[in-house]
Amino acid sequence: MPRIVATGPSVMDQTTSATRRGPPPLFAYSPWDIVPVLACIAHFAFVVGLVLAFAALPWWGFVPLAALYAVSISWNINGIAHNHIHNPYFSWEPLNRAFSMLLSLTLGFTQTEYHYVHLRHHAGNSDRPGPDGETVDPLSIYRRGDDGEPENVWAYTFLSYFRDAPTKDFSAMTGRRRLDAVWSRAEMAAVVVFYALLAVYDWRAVLCLVPFYYLGHSLSSLNGWYEHFGGNPDVPIAWGVSSYNRFYNWLWFNNGYHAEHHYRPRQHWTRMKELHRQIAAQQKAAGVRVIGTCHGLGFLDRGHPPHVWHKFAAHIFGRHRAPLGRA
Length: 327
Known about the structure:
The chain has twelve helices and two strands. By secondary structure, the protein is mainly alpha-helical. It has one domain. The protein has a two-stranded parallel sheet with strand order 1-2. Helix 3 (59-86) packs antiparallel against helix 4 and helix 4 packs across helix 7 (175-201).
């Protein structure tokens, strides 16, 4: 009788191997995701600390910290919160929900709603208006421009916050999307309660932070405008505008690789430089626009039209059209 030889692991071996593997890792994509997670926790602590310390701060101490608060809003939206949308940090869904809540409290608006708005942004990729005069992307810099040209940068920057929220009716969502709708309402309720409690503690502090909160969202809009000004809405690899400034990408979690990001939205933030190397020749052939500054300071880039401040003055006096290549 021929001898039977086992060629694969036994059931016991497989069970032992599975036991040894242990639970899944905390982070879904990379251990480096601990950096933006800790950064968000620090940001939340900074917001709370700024309110708690307000009474003890002289005006010359509060104003710089409030300005830093404004910048930190744009930093979080375009770095931490943005990367969490495309690659949720945690392996366990409840932790991702909890982190979404933390982002909402820190930034003062619902992260879940931002998630859906941002996905529509990627569906349109800052497209020009179609035959119906509408854009797929609710955040498109062309949405309120004239003759297929971008909207004036300063109008986009300072008016975007006051425009209607471009989300679909959450009440029509079903399944998982229905859960997102409920969670979005929970986040918004938590935001209201959280800032109400801060106001109870020191309403003067919250009131003084309101203009800086608005400034932070305006800076985020400014950042978004220069992420697409000079991009080509008709060429996927050139949808975005990139900046390879090392300090900017180190601080902003590689947000500078924006053309690469729109070309491969699911690429993890730690691998953007690798993606850039892979497609650099294609980008050059497609004429991808690259600026030397961070996106938020795009108007200071050497390749920017020199009359940016003239166009700003022109807009203030009512001449609001900004042809392509101008701001």
